[in-house]
Specification:
257 residues, alpha/beta, Rossmann fold, 2 domains, six-stranded mixed beta sheet, three-stranded antiparallel beta sheet, globular
């Protein structure tokens, strides 16, 4: 699926005042592209994802979708930093939930879910409930559920932001392994510049509130070499370029980590 945001604006009413979260934001994704969005805290990244997902109505501008041939839906599936698993369901049931909603028979949906759980380090934990899983395990289940649901567009809001460095690195690799299977279009929000470079085909930089696109960076490294390239001069140069775009647009009081 391809998505175009055209002069997008989103306002909120707070304590009798109008707050503009996004204003004049335009972007266009490509079919099968892994696009990351990065910007200072409060710049409207989550608002952008929620608006594309149809959870918020734009105040101004428009969003256009061009679905892949045979796609069932015109909207995307949103994955939050909070894993949002159902606490009364097992890991297997949570992973298979999207397939259940689509009417897939139990034996087939459990076979598909069990296969991915096994492949991504959760073999033997299929019957565990969320409170019996680590944070990384829960997020694995949430990502597996998203891919099994097979949305035309995957919207991810800092899904690994609360995880430790080692777990985050492992899940980045697993996300890319899932993504490579069918090159699903992804819009991925993150505060982490290294993460954006490792995962993305292209990175958009947003200004401080109200958010708008003020920079674009294409990632030149082969996907097979990115982890190894992290200490290379080319990787560090690209990171400095992105940080420079961020720092020149951050207003007093905004922070990027």
């Amino acid at each position: 699926m391809r998505v175009s945001c055209i002069n997008l604006g989103v306002d909120f009413e707070t304590n009798g005042k109008t707050v503009t979260a996004l204003d004049g934001l335009s972007l266009e994704t490509q079919e099968g592209e892994f696009l990351s969005v990065i910007g200072p805290s409060g710049c409207g990244k989550t608002t952008l994802l929620r608006t594309i997902a149809g959870l918020l109505e734009p105040t101004r501008g428009a969003i256009e979708f061009v679905p892949r041939a045979g796609a069932r839906d015109s909207r995307g599936l949103l994955v939050f930093q909070e894993n949002s698993l159902f606490p009364w369901m097992t890991a297997l049931e949570n992973a298979a939930f999207g397939l259940e909603m689509e009417g897939v028979v139990r034996s087939e949906r459990e076979r598909s879910a069990r296969e991915l759980l096994e492949r991504h380090g959760l073999g033997g934990r299929e019957r565990a409930y969320p409170h019996q899983l680590s944070a990384g395990m829960k997020q694995r289940v949430a990502v597996i559920r998203a891919f099994l649901s097979d949305p035309p567009l995957l919207l991810m809001d800092e899904p690994f932001g609360a995880l430790d460095s080692q777990t985050r690195s492992a899940l980045q690799s697993e996300l890319l392994a899932l993504w490579r299977k069918d090159r699903k279009s992804v819009i991925f929000v993150t505060h982490d510049v290294d993460e954006a470079i490792i995962l993305s085909d292209r990175i958009l930089v947003l200004s401080a509130q109200p958010g708008r696109v003020i920079g674009e960076v294409r990632v030149p490294f082969s996907r097979d070499d990115r982890q190894a390239a992290m200490l290379s001069e080319g990787f560090l140069h690209l990171k400095r370029e992105i940080l420079s775009k961020l720092e020149t647009r951050i207003e007093a009081g905004c922070r990027v980590r």
